[in-house]
Amino acid sequence: MDFKVIDNYLMIKMPVEVDHHLAGAICKKADAFLVNDKVNNIVFDFEETKFMDSSGIGIIVGRYKKISYLGGKVFAVHVDRQIRRILYISGLNKMIEVLD
After folding, report:
1. Strand partners, 76
2. How far is CA 24 from the centre of its chain?
């Protein structure tokens, strides 16, 4: 995982496997950035991600709820076919913007 703030965007580079083992750490670190930095939007970068289970969906939904409350948006970039399928099946594509 890699976290960077660029302008008012929190960029989160997701790990190869997004599962319950890492979900808590990702949420905790992302939330710290939301509290401490001037962040209005979140970008999840799935470039290296090959696997994501329901805890990954939970990470995104939780951050979506927090950032949308502040008037921000959530984006997903570098989404491969499998991750895109998970985002669409779960309905997340209606909450977040999936960019090509």
Report:
1. 44, 98
2. 13
